[in-house]
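Many introductory courses stop at the sequence. We go one step further.
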Amino acid sequence: MTTDPSFSIPRRPRRRFPHGSGVEYEGGTEFELRPDADLSTSDLAGVVADILADGPYRYGDFHDLPMPLWLVRDEGTADVFRVAVRDGTVRLHVLPTTEPPGLRRFYERLCARDSDRSWRVERFVDEG
């Protein structure tokens, strides 16, 4: 396991509600968790699904998308964020009220679930 990332959130997304088209987000922060060895999308999605099923999460997935995506609430921290699996990575998308503890706990559970592997964390900030 690498040194623990801070999961600090320098830019939160802003919600917009354009007339007739739901919700959109402007700007934000995303954390990309990449394993040290390649895993298939289905293997990574299985690891994420197992972590979510073990709790303390309440979650829902989106079935009609080209990638696995969940809306997640950590019941221990009350943090809500999105988790996506794409291009060999697990991506944690910050929402307007997400705080670092929920992201950190998910990362710690991921590392514990797959302890033979190390994970690199990169933070991406969209200034919107």
